[in-house]
Design a protein that fits this description.
The complex is a heterodimer. By secondary structure, chain A is mainly alpha-helical. Helix content of chain A is 70%, strand content 0%. Chain A has six helices and no strands. The chains are: A mainly alpha, B mainly beta.
């Protein structure tokens, strides 16, 4: 019998949680202490991996989308948003304006900045890595695969 | 799925959303709040201890000998460029590094807290190990000292710690006792008013 698709779970895996921890460590300690190319890119790598899973999980919880569809949507939203913030000055200005209005309500103050750096786009493939990772992680529970597994079991054990 | 796992998943989701926004906080150069000097040895005389903000919090009593009238000697200097801070950048000041601190009993391994780890408007923030042999077994733990003006520093104004006393300054002491040692309390946090600050005789 087909179990319902999980509505969340892609973000709560060992790799995303480890990357989230590394991202926080980088922002809070490594960047201020070392401030070099590696610390500059580390947070972008983490954003490109973690954000698609975050968006996907939100879509699963709010709209109940199936894992494959919501992972694809999360990856697309992240790739487009990340690229726009890096290469379109108006997009980053709009984002900074929004953050400045939201920040005080979240205890983050009003000082926000985004740097435009085209080399950051080298991190975008992490979006697809995140998609592949989460797809493999939730893969056993996608509807089509599960139906195939169930059919195969029915064929293998016709008397059950 | 257990309730604990659900809770952890929800917390991870919420924190990720928060950090996606927080990661764009700008690092702002710490501003000048104190008169500039190269290196100074200050003699800080403590005034009365302020009543604790939370009456449930224990005070450190006299674990390290500090009480009203006690003297803390601290050597301050600046090393490195002006720090850039993300935490509380509107209030954060460019403080001084602690080269030496003496006065409290049983202190060792005194070191300066890096600028990024300091509370907003402190003149200095230092950590040290405490080993008080007067208790049995000896009380061991870590102590943190901060000295700061009592009120926020208005932009453009430079405070001189030598004017502490007439101007309200505070010295705060926080103890985290090591487990299984003879400290009467596991944690304490108390604040002294600063009675006066003078330059140590050369």
């Amino acid at each position: 019998m087909r179990r319902p698709d999980p509505r969340w779970g892609e973000l709560f895996g060992p790799l995303p949680v480890a990357l989230l921890a590394l991202w926080v460590l980088n922002d809070v300690y490594l960047k201020p202490a070392f401030h070099n190319f590696a610390t500059g890119k580390l947070s972008d790598v983490a954003v490109c991996f973690v954000m698609p899973l975050f968006v996907s999980e939100l879509l699963g919880l709010t709209l109940g989308l199936a894992p494959k569809r919501r992972l694809a949507a999360g990856a697309a939203v992240t790739a487009v948003l990340f690229t726009a913030l890096e290469v379109v000055p108006a997009a980053s200005a709009l984002a900074v304006g929004l953050l400045r209005s939201l920040g005080p309500y979240l205890g983050l103050g009003r000082s926000f900045a985004m740097t435009s750096d085209w080399t950051d786009l080298a991190c975008v493939p992490m979006v697809f890595a995140a998609y592949a990772y989460a797809n493999a992680r939730l893969g056993g529970s996608t509807g089509a695969q599960r139906t195939r597994v169930a059919r195969a079991k029915d064929v293998a054990s016709p008397l059950q | 799925m257990t309730l604990a796992k659900k809770f952890l998943q929800g917390a991870t989701l919420a924190f990720t959303g928060f950090w996606l926004l927080a990661t764009s906080r700008a690092a702002v150069p710490a501003r000048d709040c104190f008169v500039p000097f190269k290196e100074r040895e200050l003699v800080v005389t403590l005034g009365r201890m302020q009543p604790p903000a939370d009456p449930k919090l224990s005070n450190c009593a006299e674990l390290d000998g500090l009480r009203e009238g006690a003297v803390v000697r601290v050597t301050l200097s600046r090393s490195g460029p002006r720090p850039e801070l993300r935490e509380n950048p509107e209030e954060a000041c460019w403080g001084y590094d602690t080269k030496a601190l003496s006065g409290p009993d049983g202190l060792s391994e005194v070191h300066s807290v890096p600028p990024q780890g300091r509370a907003g408007r402190v003149l200095f923030e230092a950590e040290a190990k405490l080993a008080n042999a007067a208790s049995a077994p000896p009380c061991r733990g870590s102590l943190r000292f901060t000295m700061a003006p009592a009120a926020a520093v208005p932009p453009g104004r430079l405070l001189d710690p030598l004017r502490a006393g007439p101007e309200p300054w505070l010295l705060r002491r926080i103890l985290h006792a090591s487990e299984g040692t003879g400290c009467p309390v596991p944690y304490c946090d108390d604040t002294f008013e600063v009675r006066s600050v003078t330059l140590a005789a050369p």
